[in-house]
Amino acid sequence: MNPNPVVLVTMDAVRADHLSCYGYKRIRTLNIDKISQQGVTFDNCITASSLTPVSHASILTGNYPNKHTVRDPFGFVRTKTLAEILKDRGYRTAGFTGIDFLSSRSNFNAGFDFFDEPSEDTSWHRKKFEDKKTGTEIDSIWGNWWVDKMLKWIENNHNSNFFVWGHYFECHVPADRWLLESGLIKEGRLSEWNYYDAKIECMDENLFAPLITLLKKLELWDDTVFVVMSDHGETFDEHPHKDSWCQHQSVYNTDLRIPLIIKNKRLRKGIRIKDMVRSIDVVPTVLSLLDMDTDLKFDGVNLEPMINGKEKISNLAYSEEMYELRGDGALQAIQSMSFKLIRNNTLKQEEFYDLQNDPEEKNNLIGEEMWSKEIERFRKILDRFTETREKAKEIYSEQEKEKIKARLRSLGYID
Predict the structure, then answer these.
(1) Which homologous superfamily is 6-316 in?
(2) Is the pTM of this model over 0.85?
(3) Are 185 and 179 in contact (CB under 8 A)?
(4) What's domain 318-410's architecture?
(5) What is the pLDDT of residues 228-252, one digit of tens each?
(6) 102-121 as b/e: b if 16+ CB within 10 A
(7) Mind listing the pLDDT tens digit for each residue in 283-318?
(8) CA-CA distance, 330 to 133, in Å (whole number)?
(9) End-to-end distance of the chain based on CA atoms, in angstroms?
(10) In the predicted model, what is the mean pLDDT of the chain?
(11) How do the domains of the chain map onto residue ranges?
(12) Contact status, residue 300 vs residue 278, Cβ threshold 8 Å
């Protein structure tokens, strides 16, 4: 029986509208384009958060933050991840991450046989973050060029079913400094926004080109479930922000709309999906493509029926950025294809947008009488969404609670 590998690449802070398969003209991401041409490209995928650890926990578990419990840089993943599910089914698993928010400290290593995370030797940046609840600080480690290690691991394990997750961080600020010093990007070329386009082009050439070549060489290209996506986007001039050094602090769609491409032989090739999907839909979709059933309950849904034209899926997308020290407050948003409500729980303010006529979210409709019924409807949706999910997070079996405690003990968080 042929192996059915799974490869998941999450690109940190990469906007969909800066990839040529999404219509961008300034650079050509030829290798990502190849995956798009052979797979399914989603034009309107919404992530669960603009903060890296929160968004990744949702990607890897298929659940919203209230369930996996990562809501700031100090969270701990408490629901089962795709790596754990596949390991239980006999898969060999490897993870490669580029920032220590996605590390063993927060349980992102759960389910991985091999896990490569940033270290003092591999990193190119440090940044301190404060835990407002405890008053403590963590010194975060940024940077880890793992591409060669990942390719070698695949080559060594390609005769078995395997799952590889690679979190590529070198599109994030301030990776441009290290990439310039390493000669991977050129001084002065595509230098706008901290060499943003140059960094994306570098990723396409130095990660995706050799990865595609290797999968074809090993005759795994057709059988692989290949998922390419971002964790969140990036805001440039579209909305004001307090920290010009790091832009993704909001729940506007510049930060929440992400690229998502899924390639597999079971799916139609080269098609585009216009309807809104969510990052939490990836795990149930991957399991469907592998014909794997599970008793686990996901907030996300299987997209395979939509992809193959058998079913139209209409979903609401919830997103949050609750780490108040980073942005303008504790933010939550709920959106459909047509409308979006943003709530700032810190400042007690709301924003409402007609996404069909105002996709850049410039015209706040709160207070306008003609929109009052629609605004109230979305308020009730967000209230109900928040209430039901806050209750749901307390519903753990005693066995699940003991597993969570055991993980916390193993990492020294509790006695």
Answers:
(1) Alkaline Phosphatase, subunit A (3.40.720.10)
(2) yes
(3) yes
(4) 2-Layer Sandwich (3.30)
(5) 999 999 988 787 665 554 578 899 9
(6) bbbbbbbbbbbebbbbbeee
(7) 999 999 999 999 999 999 999 999 988 777 778 999
(8) 14
(9) 46
(10) 90
(11) 6-316, 318-410
(12) yes
